[in-house]
Amino acid sequence: MKKLVFTLCLFASFFINAQKSIGGKIYDKHPSIDVVDAFTKAFVAGDEATMRSLITEDFRWWQMNVMSPKPNPIENLIGRSKYLSENVINFDVKNRGQAYSDAIEFKGIDRVDVYTYQILTGVDKQSGFILKIPRNSIFSLTKDGTKIRGLSISDSQLKWNKAYDAYTTKKNGTIYIDHPFISKARLLYAHILTGDLEAMRSLYADNASISDPMNSELDSSFGPDEEIENLKEFYKQYEVIDVTERGYPDLLEYEGTDTKTIISWWDLNIKNKKSGKTKKHSNHSQITVNKEGKIIREVYYYNAANLPK
Q: Residue 104 in contact with residue 74, Cβ under 8 Å?
C-alpha cells in the first residue's frame, strides 16, 4: 500500500512539474519587426547612415556558425554591406519561402528579440558566382523595440568559402592528352562505326548509367542493355558511313577519386537508309571509367533533329 501511495505521489509531482507555463509572447506583427526590416533594407543598399541610426551605442554582432564566435563592432557589418551592395548584382536579403519574422517578448527579460528566416541572393559581378545562402538571424532590440542592441547571424560558411575560392587558383586534378584509358572513348565510337554492339556492350559495367540530356529529361538515365536496344532501332533506319575524331579526347583525373573521365568530340557521317541522304552529325561524349577501365557513366549530346531525313 505504501508503495502504491508513493507511486501516486511521484506521478502527481511529475504531472504538476510538467504543467505548461507562459514564458513570453510571440508576434507576427510588431514595431520591432519594422525596425529590423528597415535595417535589412539599409544593409542591402549599403546605407551606413540608416544602419547607424537604428542601433544602440553598444551594438555588437556575432557570426554564430564559426569555431569561436566573438562580438564584432558595427564597422565590420557596414564594411560587408558596402562591399556586397557594390559588388553583387541584384543583391538582396529576403524572407525564405513562406517564412516570416517573429518578434518575441520573453517573460522577465528586458528586451525584444526578432527572429528572421531569410536567404541572401545575388551574383558576384567579378567571379560570376551565384549566391543563394540561407540566413537565420536573431536581432535583440531595446524593450521599446526602437533600437537594435545585438545581432546573431547563422549562415552557410561553406557557401561563403566557395564564393571566396572563386577568386583563387586551385588545382583539382590532372588533364591527360594521352592515356591508356582514352582507348575506351575511341573504341566506343569505333564500334558505333562498325555496328558491333556486342563489343560495345563489353565496354560498360553492368550498373552503368547513361544519359542523353538533349533528347530526354535532364534527370533521366538508362542502363547499357537499354542503350544497345536503342542502337538496334537506330541501325534499322540509319547507317554510319564515317566517324572522325574532332580535336582529341581529354582524360580528366580528379583529386580524391579513383575514376577517370574522358571527354571527346566526334563528327559522324550518317546515311538515311530509306532516302539515301547523308549528313554530318556532331557528337560530344563524356564517359567515366572505374579503375578496371569499365564505363560506369556516360553522358552524350547530339541533336536528333539533325539526322538526315
A: no
DSSP annotation of 180: G
Amino acid at the residue 140: S
Q: Is residue 217 part of a domain?
A: yes
Q: Is residue 293 part of a domain?
A: yes
Q: Which helix (H) or strand (E) holds 128?
A: none
**Contact of 129 with 162, CB cutoff 8 Å:** yes
Per-residue pLDDT tens over the stretch 115-160: 999 999 999 999 999 999 999 999 999 999 999 999 999 999 999 9
Residue range(s) defining the domain that contains residue 119: 22-165
- Residues whose CB is less than 8 angstroms from the CB of residue 143 and which lie 6 or more positions away in sequence, other chains included: 110, 111, 112
Domain endpoint, select from 120, 142, 165 = 165
Same domain, 70 and 196: no
Which of the 8 DSSP states describes residue 273?
A: T
Q: Which three cell numbers stand for residue 49?
A: 547612415
* Residue owning grid cell 557596414: 78
Single out the residue of 178, 225, 226 nearest to residue 202, CA to CA: 225
**Contact partners, residue 91, CB within 8 Å, separation at least 6:** 44, 84, 85, 120, 121, 122
Domain boundary pick from 165, 192, 213: 165
Whichever domain contains 223, its CATH number is: 3.10.450.50
Q: Among residues 80, 56, 152, which one has the least CA distance to residue 113?
A: 152
pTM of the entire structure?
0.71
Residues 6+ apart with CB under 8 A from 112: 30, 32, 103, 104, 105, 140, 141, 142, 143, 145
Give the number of domains in the chain: 2
Q: CA angle, corner 110, sides to 106 and 113, nearest 5?
A: 50
